[in-house]
Write a structure and sequence with these properties.
alpha/beta; Rossmann fold; 6-stranded mixed β-sheet; 10 helices
Length: 254
């Protein structure tokens, strides 16, 4: 679904990762973690084209993004959705209008059908139909995340990018969102690239884990990470919060 070869990322003249190779497999959830300033969100934004890569190649669905013209890139872009950390909802639009944006931009559909699809997408993420009439400012943090997820899924993309999906949520809300992501992944056969700082999310949702550390990337299963002797990786997965999440009999996403 996604292949990176020799990708170097940076912002403001500062290199964050060098020569990254990564394969995202169809149907898996890859959790991406790293310390503050490691460039997790920059990597995500580089992959989806919001920040140019310093070097290397990025392929989605077997297509090299650098070789596509604008029309081809726009068409391919309908096959992935993005949930940004703060939701990035348009504050001047209602929730329903936010979810309708990709439908109206990409498809020529009657207004009534767009409305029906909006209500369906809201239901998919656990929001009531009346939520469509509200503005983002009237929503709780968890509801904003769900509304933004509904927009990311508006065009039924097979590939989903999540940037810190549980950031700012209380433990109950975070566990519910983890469960939602896992259920949607199974029911919609999604492939998910998930940037997170939350080890509970990794335990609940991720099939493999990618750790950004020292300008490079380490990828493996949870067992691989637990055996890794790198000081940062060991501290992250074997620290008090890591042990609590991993040893918990029933994790929040279960």
């Amino acid at each position: 679904m996604l292949r990176l070869r020799g990708v170097t990322t940076g912002i403001g003249g500062r290199v964050l990762q060098r020569n990254i190779d990564l394969d995202l497999l169809r149907g898996e959830v890859l959790g991406v973690v790293g310390g503050s300033g490691a460039g997790k969100s920059v990597l995500l934004k580089t992959i989806v084209g919001l920040i140019p890569a310093v070097s290397g190649t990025i392929e989605m669905f077997g297509r090299n993004l650098a070789t596509l013209d604008e029309d081809e890139r726009q068409l391919l872009g309908t096959r992935w959705g993005v949930l940004f950390q703060d939701g990035a909802l348009f504050s001047s639009l209602t929730v329903g209008e936010n979810v309708a944006v990709p439908l109206q931009e990409r498809l020529d559909l009657p207004r009534g059908l767009v409305h029906e699809l909006v209500i369906m997408k809201l239901a998919l993420v656990g929001l009531a139909p009346e939520t469509a009439r509200l503005y983002p400012a009237a929503l709780s943090g968890g509801m904003r995340k769900r509304a933004a997820l509904a927009r990311a899924l508006a065009l039924d993309p097979p590939l989903l990018f999540l940037d810190e999906p549980t950031a700012g949520l209380d433990p109950i809300g975070a566990a519910e969102f983890d469960r939602l992501v896992r259920d949607l992944k199974e029911s919609l056969n999604l492939t998910v690239f998930m940037v997170t700082h939350d080890i509970d999310s990794l335990v609940a949702v991720a099939d493999r884990i990618a750790v950004l550390i020292d300008n490079r990337l380490k990828i493996g299963t949870m067992d691989d990470m637990l055996r890794d002797t790198d000081p940062w990786i060991h501290a992250y997965f074997h620290g008090p919060r890591g042990r609590a999440a991993i040893e918990r009999p029933s994790n929040p996403g279960a």
